[in-house]
Amino acid sequence: MTSLSHWGSELKVLEDSTQLLIMMVQNNHRCHLVVECPEFWDLCSKISENVYPYSTLPLSVKQNISTALVHAGSANMNQYKDKYWQQTLQPLHHRYHNLTTHPTFTQHKHKESTILELSSILSMLQGISAASTPSNTTYLFGFLTNFLPDCPKLIDIYHGNESLVVLILELYVEVVHKQICYLKQTQCSLLCDWTMNLLKSYSNHGNTMTSSEDDITLIIELLTNLLSKDFIDFSEPDADETWSIPGAQPMETSAADVVLFGLGIILPNMNSQLLLYPELCSQYFKLITFLCEIYPEKIEKLSDEMLQSFVYSLQIGLKSYGCDNCKLCLEAIESLSTHCYKTKDAPSSLHNVVSSFTKVIDSQQDEQTKLRLSTSFANLTHDVSLLNHDRNSRTTFLRNLESIIYNIRGILCVK
Description:
Layout (H helix, E strand, L loop, with lengths): L1 H5 L4 H15 L2 H8 L2 H11 L10 H16 L6 H8 L1 H11 L4 H4 L3 H19 L6 H8 L6 H8 L3 H18 L5 H20 L8 H15 L27 H12 L11 H17 L1 H4 L4 H17 L2 H20 L6 H6 L4 H4 L4 H13 L11 H23 L2
Helix pairs in contact: 2-5, 5-6, 5-9, 7-9, 9-12, 11-12, 11-13, 12-14, 13-15, 14-15, 14-16, 16-19, 18-19, 22-23
């Protein structure tokens, strides 16, 4: 507590102190000792109400403290729990409500004090989201519904403020990453609706704001986290009395719809120079690999221009950005090829695009070499059920591939 109030200019000291606090409250035994300390309750109150000198702490430190406060409140506090949540979370809601509903908010929305307060609230919300666990997700999601639906409006207002845009995107990334695998279907539908509205607001201001590397990376991460629900789902079925928020009616927006819309934002900005950023590059190829594996039929619905951009990114990913990203591109092509095989009776533009990856055989001028290559590739599917894309078929295919790869290498090398 002393370091937070007396070492405000030493960022490293503050971050180490708050990380230590997080470690203490994540352990049940140590957490009980912490919450019995009067100074801890005093810290909770002053941080939530933005009392000086805690109001001047860096955003990253406030975020860490919020994470620690939620971990402490999620412990078995018995009779203290309701009082604790009321003392820590509700003041943050009141601060946001008082700020955005004040009669002078529209007039003073770009004042430094307003932006600082909003930045502080968004950072603390991100810290709250980071502390999500299976036991507290439902409560925290209900609390966050006081803020998440308003974020598209905040994008409309502050689209010219890069730091606030990043904070809003980071909040959504954290919420989806930490909570989506525990949310019920009704809650997921609401979250998809809000995410779609957020991306639409971001897209609407594309002509007046420049999409930075940070923006694109966060959007890609957000879309990837949305798709993770199809891989990992720990949620319980919706009860008969459907979980709901007063006034909130979930639309028929699926995660795939949100991801496809997000691709429309990403692809026009994606180029070989932007992919030189390692984190962005890795996130992008993970996203398209997941999308091709889970929803290959959605790729067919891309416009011709988007489809060409999509395939071009796969082509350059095969040869320009390292082995790991090349592997992801090959997995994406595999998923698309499998889908095309299953739908070969109803060919689409996707079939033509995927066929562009088979030029290694067609480009051979020597008829004997072409025949030997064709025979070798035909052996790939020996004893493999292409229609049943199961684990056994994949294992057999990989075994066949290993046995013929040396033969193909010899064919291409020997003149």
